[in-house]
User: What shape does this take?
Amino acid sequence: MALRNILKEGDPRLRKTSRAVTEFNDRLWTLLDDMYETMISDGVGIAAPQVGVLRRAVVIDIGDGSGKHELINPKIISSEGEQCGHEGCLSVPGEYGIVYRPQKVTVQAQDRFGKPFELTAEDFFAVACCHELDHLDGVLFIDKAERMLTPEELEKLGEE
Assistant: This one.
């Protein structure tokens, strides 16, 4: 496993639509492992475009004990409810915004071997899924933010 460079806002690759994964092989597995290694110290999710690979793959681990979730060619097939909270992103360091997301989503995806599955995510996990899947279509949370948090609000969040 290796740490990969995370692209930052302004890099045009973050605004491109990713292509489907068609080969489930060592190259994909290395990418997924590297993405997890790159993300785990500072985030709860990462999408392949954030490390410069325009493929439809994301890795999420929200730290709730449910472990690592690898979603290949994911697609949200249903959503319900609404929640609002602050979001940040490894590709937009130091910035946080207020974003509305579904309370619950069902995602259809494939695992690292190509086997299809569905998962239902609620609350923070649903936010993470929506956030990471947006990356696959060139969308950043700042595009959906109701507003960005002020330095004073960020300081207050840091105290909590």
Q: What stands out?
A: The beta strands are 45-47, 57-60, 69-80, 83-89, 92-101, 104-110, 116-122, 147-148. The helical segments are 26-40, 123-135, 141-144, 151-159. The radius of gyration is 15 Å.
